[in-house]
Task: structure prediction
Amino acid sequence: MPPLNGLTRFFEDLVIGEVRLSGTRTLTAEDITTFARQYDPQWFHADADAARDSVWGEVVASGIQTMAVWRQLDHEVAHDIAWICGVGWDKVRWPRGLRAGVPVQARSTVLTKRASSKDPTRGVVVMRYELLDARDGLPVWEAEGTNLIRRRQPAT
Result:
């Protein structure tokens, strides 16, 4: 957890509708094939020659790699939140393939928040997470995540 200082954002500090946007990251074809060969060796991720015959016409990042890139970028914008943990993702989608050479950035939006019914030291926050093509702002990955966030003061 981040240090408990003026930079830490607690449940009470998060605002419904708040949006945060990270910097960008761009994968190379080598990044994609190297990751795929180790973690998701499907031919359209791992073999550039074979991927030319796929629906994408080239290698695309696996869904797992796409989420890992989002996670790295999301830490830029969410490192200051007093996280306890994430408890689930819903509405997970990959509307576009993540291609080499495409700059992407993470966007998070606070959708809902409520006090925990089980523990007064926690709040429950649902966030929309997206990994966006930075050129046109359209998502390559998206999900809604339910998270437990520390409260500054326990609910009374």
Observations:
- The chain has a mean pLDDT of 93.
- The domain at 11-150 is CATH 3.10.129.10 (Thiol Ester Dehydrase; Chain A).
- The beta strands are 19-26, 83-93, 103-115, 122-133, 139-150.
- The chain has one domain: 11-150.
